[in-house]
Amino acid sequence: MKSIIKIFVSAAIILSLDITFAQPDSPDTSKVLVRFSEPMSREGIFDVSNYKIICEDNHEIKIYKVGVVDGDSAVVLFTEKHQPGKAYRVIVSNLKDKAGNLIHQENNYALYQKDN
Asked: 63-69 and 60-61 as β-strands: parallel, antiparallel, unpaired?
Protein backbone atom coordinates (compact mmCIF):
# COMPACT_ATOMS: atom_id res chain seq x y z
CA MET A 1 0.00 0.00 0.00
CA LYS A 2 1.36 3.40 -0.98
CA SER A 3 1.53 6.08 1.65
CA ILE A 4 0.26 9.55 0.79
CA ILE A 5 2.21 12.38 2.38
CA LYS A 6 0.32 15.64 2.59
CA ILE A 7 1.86 19.10 2.98
CA PHE A 8 0.43 21.91 5.08
CA VAL A 9 1.87 25.42 5.13
CA SER A 10 1.80 28.20 7.68
CA ALA A 11 3.36 31.53 6.79
CA ALA A 12 3.04 32.79 10.36
CA ILE A 13 6.06 34.02 12.26
CA ILE A 14 7.64 31.26 14.27
CA LEU A 15 8.68 32.36 17.72
CA SER A 16 9.94 29.26 19.52
CA LEU A 17 10.43 25.88 17.93
CA ASP A 18 13.14 23.31 18.50
CA ILE A 19 14.81 23.51 15.10
CA THR A 20 18.02 21.96 13.76
CA PHE A 21 19.75 24.07 11.11
CA ALA A 22 21.80 22.95 8.14
CA GLN A 23 23.47 26.34 7.61
CA PRO A 24 24.15 29.52 9.60
CA ASP A 25 21.46 32.20 9.88
CA SER A 26 20.95 34.65 7.01
CA PRO A 27 19.76 38.16 7.91
CA ASP A 28 16.44 39.61 6.72
CA THR A 29 14.52 36.43 5.93
CA SER A 30 10.92 35.30 5.90
CA LYS A 31 10.03 31.98 7.50
CA VAL A 32 7.62 29.42 6.09
CA LEU A 33 6.56 26.43 8.19
CA VAL A 34 5.86 23.35 6.07
CA ARG A 35 4.11 20.58 8.02
CA PHE A 36 3.90 17.03 6.70
CA SER A 37 1.11 14.58 7.49
CA GLU A 38 3.70 12.16 8.86
CA PRO A 39 7.35 12.19 10.02
CA MET A 40 9.88 12.46 7.21
CA SER A 41 13.25 10.81 6.66
CA ARG A 42 16.24 13.08 7.23
CA GLU A 43 17.70 11.98 3.89
CA GLY A 44 17.69 15.11 1.69
CA ILE A 45 15.57 17.11 4.11
CA PHE A 46 18.22 19.87 4.52
CA ASP A 47 18.84 20.20 0.75
CA VAL A 48 17.30 23.52 -0.37
CA SER A 49 17.04 22.18 -3.94
CA ASN A 50 14.25 19.85 -2.73
CA TYR A 51 12.01 22.87 -2.08
CA LYS A 52 10.67 25.57 -4.37
CA ILE A 53 8.48 28.59 -3.60
CA ILE A 54 6.82 30.43 -6.47
CA CYS A 55 4.97 33.73 -6.13
CA GLU A 56 1.70 34.34 -8.00
CA ASP A 57 3.66 36.53 -10.46
CA ASN A 58 5.86 33.46 -11.29
CA HIS A 59 8.84 34.91 -9.40
CA GLU A 60 10.76 32.13 -7.66
CA ILE A 61 11.54 32.96 -4.02
CA LYS A 62 15.11 32.23 -2.94
CA ILE A 63 15.41 29.69 -0.12
CA TYR A 64 18.49 30.25 2.02
CA LYS A 65 18.28 27.29 4.40
CA VAL A 66 16.07 24.61 5.88
CA GLY A 67 15.47 23.87 9.56
CA VAL A 68 13.86 20.65 10.77
CA VAL A 69 11.38 20.72 13.65
CA ASP A 70 11.72 18.07 16.38
CA GLY A 71 9.79 14.97 15.40
CA ASP A 72 10.68 15.40 11.71
CA SER A 73 7.08 16.19 10.73
CA ALA A 74 7.78 19.81 9.73
CA VAL A 75 10.48 22.02 8.26
CA VAL A 76 11.05 25.76 8.39
CA LEU A 77 12.17 27.37 5.15
CA PHE A 78 14.18 30.58 5.56
CA THR A 79 13.62 32.60 2.42
CA GLU A 80 13.97 36.03 0.94
CA LYS A 81 11.24 38.42 2.05
CA HIS A 82 7.68 37.65 0.91
CA GLN A 83 5.43 40.41 -0.45
CA PRO A 84 2.31 41.09 1.64
CA GLY A 85 -0.97 40.13 -0.01
CA LYS A 86 0.66 37.83 -2.59
CA ALA A 87 -0.21 34.15 -3.05
CA TYR A 88 2.57 31.54 -3.04
CA ARG A 89 2.99 27.87 -3.89
CA VAL A 90 5.55 25.74 -2.05
CA ILE A 91 6.63 22.54 -3.82
CA VAL A 92 8.53 19.72 -2.13
CA SER A 93 10.39 17.06 -4.13
CA ASN A 94 12.62 14.05 -3.54
CA LEU A 95 11.71 13.56 0.13
CA LYS A 96 10.63 10.30 1.74
CA ASP A 97 8.69 9.50 4.87
CA LYS A 98 10.26 7.34 7.62
CA ALA A 99 8.92 4.19 5.89
CA GLY A 100 10.81 5.11 2.69
CA ASN A 101 7.82 6.23 0.60
CA LEU A 102 8.67 9.03 -1.82
CA ILE A 103 6.42 12.08 -1.68
CA HIS A 104 3.97 11.81 -4.58
CA GLN A 105 3.75 14.58 -7.20
CA GLU A 106 -0.01 14.92 -6.72
CA ASN A 107 0.50 15.82 -3.04
CA ASN A 108 3.85 17.63 -3.07
CA TYR A 109 2.64 21.24 -2.97
CA ALA A 110 0.58 23.64 -0.90
CA LEU A 111 -0.77 27.15 -1.48
CA TYR A 112 -0.57 30.01 1.03
CA GLN A 113 -0.80 33.78 1.18
CA LYS A 114 1.39 36.28 2.99
CA ASP A 115 -0.80 38.42 5.25
CA ASN A 116 -0.30 42.19 5.29
From this structure: unpaired
Give φ, ψ of 53 to 5 degrees. Answer: -125, 125
For residues 114 and 14, is the Cβ–Cβ distance under 8 A? no
Spatial distance between the Cα atoms of 38 and 8, rounded to a whole number of angstroms: 11
- Say how far apart CA 34 and CA 7 lie, in whole Å: 7
DSSP H or E run through 20: strand 19-21
What does each of the 116 residues of the chain score in pLDDT, given as a tens digit? 445 556 665 443 333 333 333 444 545 778 899 998 889 999 999 999 999 999 999 999 999 999 998 889 999 999 998 888 899 999 999 999 899 988 888 888 888 887 76
Cβ–Cβ under 8 Å, residues 110 and 34: yes
Closest CA to 61 of 79, 86, 76: 79
